[in-house]
Amino acid sequence: MLGLRELVGVMLESEGLNYELRDEGDVSVISTRNFTFKIERSGRFELIPASGPRLTGFALTTASSFVRLRVHDSSLNFDYSHFLPHIEKCSTLHGHTATVSMEVVGPLGHGDYLVDFGQLKRDLKFVLNDIDHKLIASRRYVETSRDSQVTLRFVGKGGEYVLTLPSERVVLLDGESTAENISKHIAERVAENLRVAPLLVRVEMSEGTGKFASSEVLVLGSRERP
Question: In which order are the strands placed within the sheet that holds 27-31?
């Protein structure tokens, strides 16, 4: 069996990430450039990112053997429109076709598998279908939202844009609708919906041809198969 402290260290090393490990009494502290992870012997932990809210919780031990699964095929794609006012070329409304691949990392469960490949693809497709052929935009551009409609206003190439759409055709993100943030949104949604919690969910998406962004979500805790 492997403690949470060792588990996080193994995961960081497997990804080639540098970290510092030190003990402060009964608390182990793992520090990287992006976050600090404090773990008590009882299993209680606190994740302190460089920016954003803290996460606290309680974790159990897990097996020391990990596997990595990857799904990718031509059916894992979606079309979307967006705008990025801070980038002149992208500051007008435009669209892309994105292809998506996903990896999950975790311990072997009952039956010597992490998650069924078919179920993994279905969980990913569920999220992709929810954003397919929609406008993806930052919440900061919402002017009004009422009567099942949302109006967005922004200044882009050529002047001011005002867009009014049915709310169901808009996906709102906290940040800009960059490929980085969209891939993060997908990874977080998949992690929420998986029937079994892996340790890591990584999503890579293309933005058009030859351009890719990827995001990783660390999953802390456990979820049993139904």
Answer: 20-24, 27-31, 35-40, 44-49, 55-58
Residue 162 pLDDT: 97
**What is the longest distance spanned by two Cα atoms in the chain?**
61
As given in the structure block, the two tokens for residue 203 are 């999503």
Residue 45, phi then psi, degrees to nearest 5: -140, 160
35 Cβ contact partners less than 8 Å away, ≥ 6 residues apart: 47, 48, 49, 50
Q: What is the pLDDT of residues 169-212, one digit of tens each?
A: 999 999 999 999 999 999 999 988 887 666 788 999 998 788 99
Residues 6+ apart with CB under 8 A from 118: none
Q: Are 100 and 165 in contact (CB under 8 A)?
A: no
Residue 132 sits at φ, ψ, to 5 deg, of -65, 135
Q: Which residues of the chain have pLDDT under 50?
A: 1-2, 60-62, 222-226
> In 3-state terms, the chain is what percent helix, strand and coil (to 5)?
20, 45, 35
| Residue 129 CB neighbour total at 10 angstroms | 10
CA quadruple 167, 173, 175, 178: dihedral positive or negative?
Answer: negative
Burial class (CB in 10 A: 0-12, 13-18, 19+), 17: exposed
